[in-house]
Structure formats: C-alpha cells, structure tokens
Amino acid sequence: MEDSEDLRAARAVRRAVLGDAYVDGTAAGPDTVAGEFQDYITTMAWGVWAREGALTSRDRSLLVMAMTAALGRMEEFRLHASSAHRAGVGDAEVDELLFQVAAYCGAPAGVAARRSINQVRAAREQKGAGR
C-alpha cells in the first residue's frame, strides 16, 4: 500500500494510543501481503481516529471498548482497555461503560468485559509493582 498522508496520520494515532512497544511488536515481517494487510487495517481502523470531527480520542476509545465488548472481541477489548488511559479514559469511566454494555448488550458481554478489565488491571498493578 502506498504510504499516503492518511496512512501516516493513522499510524501516528495508533502509536499514540497503543504505545510504541505494542506497535513495534506487531510490525509486519518481510511478508508483503502481511504488510499490506497491516497498512489496510491501520488506515481503515485508525484512520477514523485521525478524522477531524466532533469526537475526541477519549470518545473514540470509549466507543471502541463498547463495540468490541458488545461483539465479544475480548482480545481487542483488552488491548483498548489497557491503552485507554493514553486517550484520557479513567478507570471509573470504564467501570461505568461496563454497566452500559451489560444493560444494552446482555449480561454475558458485560461479564466477559468485567473479567477482561480485571485482567488488565491486575497486569497493570503487577507491572507497577515490578518497577
């Protein structure tokens, strides 16, 4: 994929939200198709974050967490939940979000998201204790 302005903007937002360590760890290897796929996903998913508009990064982070929880995509939910602080989302907001998920998407989605949040916070605490 051509290194367009949109792709560069999407990459910058992805790196700002997910952090250098995560992004560098997911860099595509020498496989051309894998690289094209990564650029496509980055442009599509993170390009929407780079749009100018009425939604802030905080808003977008909350929306992504709600949607991934609703869809049962817990791996993506954990990724965004662990990075939410970079977008300005606090723990209390995530806790409240889970009530919304449970109410509108069902108890199984809310419970799975709560388990994921507990894992994210335990990992964060363990990481903080290991400093």
TrEMBL record:
<dbReference type="InterPro" id="IPR052512">
    <property type="entry name" value="4CMD/NDH-1_regulator"/>
</dbReference>
<protein>
    <submittedName>
        <fullName>Carboxymuconolactone decarboxylase family protein</fullName>
    </submittedName>
</protein>
<feature type="domain" description="Carboxymuconolactone decarboxylase-like">
    <location>
        <begin position="36"/>
        <end position="115"/>
    </location>
</feature>
<dbReference type="Pfam" id="PF02627">
    <property type="entry name" value="CMD"/>
</dbReference>
<dbReference type="InterPro" id="IPR003779">
    <property type="entry name" value="CMD-like"/>
</dbReference>
<dbReference type="InterPro" id="IPR029032">
    <property type="entry name" value="AhpD-like"/>
</dbReference>
